[in-house]
């Protein structure tokens, strides 16, 4: 039967220890110690039900010592399990991804360091030895972005790795929570692919990139081609306009960051407005121009 399944699912993998990859379904054949992992994209709901009648479907590796609350959260994230019944308050997910780890890196040591940062109890739900989700209840005292950034600097110094966080939105523990998790995770992955120099992401920061990616490629040149034609002639102008918009039209701050005189910055802004007819001093003009800068970056 296994040989037949490998023909049907050529992307299947076999291992004695299943990973916690949220994109894999794991099945165990009776009377063996081997697990078969199949990518979730290769399975329909009907196929999953059929395989569950033939094999034992596993949600977690029994050899991994986790608390009951973490186990329930992990089953919720990885499989079609409901929101844990103990979750009554609004909560948010802080996604994390670790890279450039040394061989001696110990996840449990880092886990304890993370828990010590929060003023209240949290659940750290690992998907692997390098990524997962922190579940935080909504309380009067919350971890803010500045505190997390300071912690990142300490983490990377102490553990010799790179870590990225995506701070999700607080949400009630209802039937929309799984959809929120899935959406946040996909947006976080987009940020890692495109803005890996940053360490902390939020939905607000990433929304322009998400909106841009939702525009069909065939339409991007039509919408932003004139902006690209201008920026391709002046590479510095693209960074100037993008930074100016990110700084909420604060010319003084932008000039300081770009090491240029404020009058020189104003000249570049006026040049862009004159050439494109887009007033980036307005919200709608700035948003459209920002998408144009993203398109220009994609084409470079």
CATH superfamily of the largest domain: Reverse transcriptase/Diguanylate cyclase domain
What is the 3D shape?
Answer: globular
State Rg: 23 Å
CATH architecture level-2 label of the largest domain = 2-Layer Sandwich
Low-confidence stretches: 60-64
Mean pLDDT: 86
Number of strands: 9
Under CATH, the topology of the largest domain can be stated as Alpha-Beta Plaits
Describe the fold and architecture.
- The chain is of the alpha+beta class.
- The protein has three domains: 2-58, no CATH class; 68-203, Alpha-Beta Plaits, CATH 3.30.70.270; 215-299, PucR C-terminal helix-turn-helix domain (Arc Repressor Mutant, subunit A), CATH 1.10.10.2840.
- The chain contains twelve helices and nine strands.
- A five-stranded mixed beta sheet has the order 6-7-5-8-9, sandwiched between helices. The protein has a four-stranded antiparallel beta sheet with strand order 1-3-2-4, with helices on one face.
- The longest helix is centred in the middle third of the chain and has 18 residues, at 177-194.
- Residues 60-64 have low confidence and may be disordered.
Q: What's this, in brief?
A:
InterPro entries: CdaR-like_regulators, PucR_C-HTH_dom, PucR_C-HTH_sf. The protein is α+β, with helices and mostly antiparallel strands and 300 residues long. 50% of the residues lie in helices and 15% in strands.
List keywords for this structure.
Helix-turn-helix domain-containing protein; globular; 12 helices; Alpha-Beta Plaits; four-stranded antiparallel β-sheet; Arc Repressor Mutant, subunit A; 300 residues; CdaR-like_regulators; PucR_C-HTH_dom; 9 strands; PucR_C-HTH_sf; alpha+beta
């Amino acid at each position: 039967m296994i040989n037949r399944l490998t023909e049907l699912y050529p992307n299947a993998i076999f291992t004695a220890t299943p990973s916690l990859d949220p994109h894999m379904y794991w099945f165990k054949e009776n009377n063996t110690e081997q697990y078969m992992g199949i990518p979730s994209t290769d399975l329909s709901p009907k196929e999953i039900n059929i395989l569950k009648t033939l094999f034992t479907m596993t949600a977690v590796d029994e050899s991994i010592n986790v608390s009951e609350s973490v186990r329930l959260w992990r089953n919720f994230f990885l499989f079609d399990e409901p929101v844990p019944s103990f979750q009554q308050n609004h909560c948010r997910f802080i996604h994390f991804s670790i890279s450039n780890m040394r061989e001696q890196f110990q996840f449990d040591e880092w886990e304890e360091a993370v828990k010590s940062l929060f003023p209240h109890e949290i659940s750290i739900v690992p998907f692997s030895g390098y990524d997962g989700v922190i579940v935080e209840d909504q309380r009067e005292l919350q971890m803010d972005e500045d505190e997390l950034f300071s912690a990142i600097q300490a983490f990377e110094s102490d553990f010799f790795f790179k870590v990225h966080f995506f701070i999700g939105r607080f949400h009630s523990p209802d039937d929309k929570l799984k959809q929120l998790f899935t959406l946040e995770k996909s947006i976080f992955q987009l940020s890692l692919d495109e803005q890996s120099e940053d360490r902390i992401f939020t939905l607000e920061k990433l929304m322009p990139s998400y909106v841009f990616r939702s525009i069909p490629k065939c339409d991007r040149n039509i919408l932003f081609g004139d902006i690209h034609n201008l920026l391709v002639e002046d590479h510095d102008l693209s960074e100037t306009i993008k930074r100016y918009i990110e700084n909420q039209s604060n010319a003084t701050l932008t000039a300081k960051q770009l090491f240029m005189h404020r009058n020189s910055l104003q000249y570049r802004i006026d040049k862009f407005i004159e050439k494109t007819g887009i007033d980036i001093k307005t919200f709608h003009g700035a948003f459209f121009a920002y998408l144009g800068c993203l398109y220009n970056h994609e084409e470079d």
